Structures are given as structure tokens and as C-alpha cells.
Amino acid sequence: MSAPGSRYMGTAEPAAAAKEANAFWHRCLKHRSFTIGAALTLLLVAAALLSLVWTPWSPYEIDMALKLKPPTASHWLGTDPFGRDVSSLLLVGARNSILVGAIAVSIGLVVGGGLGLLAAARRGWVEELIMRLADFTFAFPAILSAIMMTAVFGAGIVNSIIAIGIFNIPNFARITRASANAVWAREFVLAARACGKGPWAITFEHILPNISSVLIVQITIRFAIAILAEAALSYLGLGTQPPQPSWGRMLAEAQTLLFQAPLLAVFPGLAIVLAVLGLNLLGDGLRDLMDPRLVRQR
Question: What is the separation of C-alpha 196 from the centre of its chain, rounded to a whole number of angstroms?
Fold first, then answer.
């Protein structure tokens, strides 16, 4: 026979979890940075998803008879020097920016996060070696790495992704290692070690869940930096190559037409600003909402 009240205990935990989730979302809606950042980020994702199924015009169709047209009912944001619809280029450019950012950040998270966890778990010469390699990688920022890779392999979106991904590795390694070291000193980890658990079991069962909020915040921030880096590389001609649309290359093409068609530079520049601003605000909001010390202060 089950103990008295046991059937109520089974529903207590889901109810408490639901209450906690509702409280978290309530705090999210009250946090101005989070709401604005989430709205801008959702707008970016929606534009990228929309470009997969529909664009007002083909972003690859050239019509020189329509070049540099101002915004009209048929071309909402006008046309570029090749007669392509600017709104369609912006939609597809959002998809390419998200693609580059997602893959580059994933490279940094998997490789850098794994190295950071390894450094915190093993300590000693392993930690020292990983941190010195991270310091060495910091000497080669994304743009410099892309220039070197372009000289060897040629310009392209793949080389941009690899360069930005390599640039993200030391950042994730250092943050993961610092956060994991703080958790390794906690009492429950010492208790797990006393019970005979190995370093990898402790890492995946205790360390990683407790630093996941830090990594989530870092992902949003690095995603914004990756989008900005991709735009900069494309502006220099090292990133996304024609005919694929890119916000950075749209800016490069518009710089010689600032007095003839100034809106050509305004639209892609505004898209980059809103995307980076949204992701940064989202990261700041998540940091405030997931930090227990800041939650207790509210």
C-alpha cells in the first residue's frame, strides 16, 4: 500500500515547475531589454524563414531597365544598381546572416565549450595548455583569419564561417572554464566526488547543467558579433559571394551611390543595426533574468 498522500506528491512537482515557469515568463515580459531584444530577434528569424518560401521578387533576377528605382508599390524598398528588388535582397540576406552566425557560433560552442570543460575537469598542465592556445588564437581575429584563408583558399562563405568559428573558440573556452571552475568548488560537487563519481560523470551531470545559463547568454552575444563579422567580411569582398545576397556587400555596392541613391545604404545598414541590437538586448535580458543574485534583488 502506498503511503498516505503519495498520490498528491506526484502532482506537486509538476505544479511547482509550472508555477516557476510562469513566474519566469512573467519576469521576462516585465524586462524591457528582453522584450525588445526578443521582438527584434523574432523579426530577424521571421524574415529569414519567410525568404525560404516567398520573396516579393527574385533576388537573383537582373533587370537593368529598373535600376535605382525609388520605393514604389511594386518594389517596396526600391531597386539596386542591377535592378534587383532591395526588399527581396534583405530577406535572403537575413537568411544568410543567420546561417553564418549559427554555424560559426556552433563551432565555437562545441569546440571551445568542450575545451573549457576539459580544462576545468583535468586542471594542471592540461588547463594551462588549453588556456595558452586560447590566448594564441586571440591574436588572429575573424577578419585577419579570413584574409589569410582567402589568400590560400579563395574568398567564400565557407571560409568566413570557419574564420568566425575559430574566433569564437577561445571566447567560449575561457568563459566555460571560468564558470565550470566556480561550480567545481561547490559543496554538492565535492559530495559527488566523495560518492565515487568520475570527473566526466560530474561534468555532464552537475557542471554542464549549472553553467548552461551562462552559455545561453554567451551564445546570443556571440551570434550578434558573428552577424557583424559576416557583414564586415562581405563588405570587404571576403564573405558571401555573388549572386548570394549579403547585407555587407549591399553596403559596399551602395557606398559609391550615396548621393545618387542614399536609401541603398540605409536599408542594409538598418538591418544590421537592428539584428545586432536585438541579439545584444536579448543577451543582456537573459543574463539579468537567469542570474539568481539579480532575481533576488527584483
Answer: 38
Alpha carbon 58 to its chain centroid, in Å, reads 28
Give the pLDDT mean for 87-102.
95
Spatial contact of 96 and 246, defined as CB atoms under 8 Å apart: yes
d(CA 175, CA 287): 14
Task: Give the bridge partners for 132, in sequence order.
Answer: none
b/e per residue, 95-130, with b = 16+ CB within 10 A?
A: bbbbebbebbbebbbebbbebbbbbbbeeeeebeeb
Domain regions of the chain by residue span: 28-53+84-297
State the cell numbers at 258: 550615396
Query: pLDDT of 6-61, one tens digit each?
Result: 444 455 567 777 777 777 778 888 889 999 999 999 999 999 999 999 999 999 99
Q: Is residue 118 within a helix (H) or strand (E), and if so which, with residue range? A: helix 113-122
What does the alpha-carbon distance between residue 22 and residue 152 come to, in Å, rounded to a whole number? Answer: 53
- CATH class given for the domain over 28-53+84-297: mainly alpha
Secondary structure (3-state) at 79 = strand
Q: Which pLDDT does position 138 carry in this prediction? A: 79
Residue 85, SS3 per DSSP = strand
Residues 6+ apart with CB under 8 A from 117: 176, 177, 180, 203, 207, 208
Q: pTM of this prediction?
A: 0.89
Q: What's the confidence (pLDDT) of residue 7?
A: 45
Is 8 strand, coil or helix? helix
Place of cell 505544479: 15
User: Can you tell me the distance from the alpha carbon of 265 to that of 104, in angstroms, rounded to the nearest whole number?
Assistant: 26
* Buried b / exposed e along 44-68 (16+ C-beta atoms within 10 A): beebbeebeeebebebeeeeeebeb
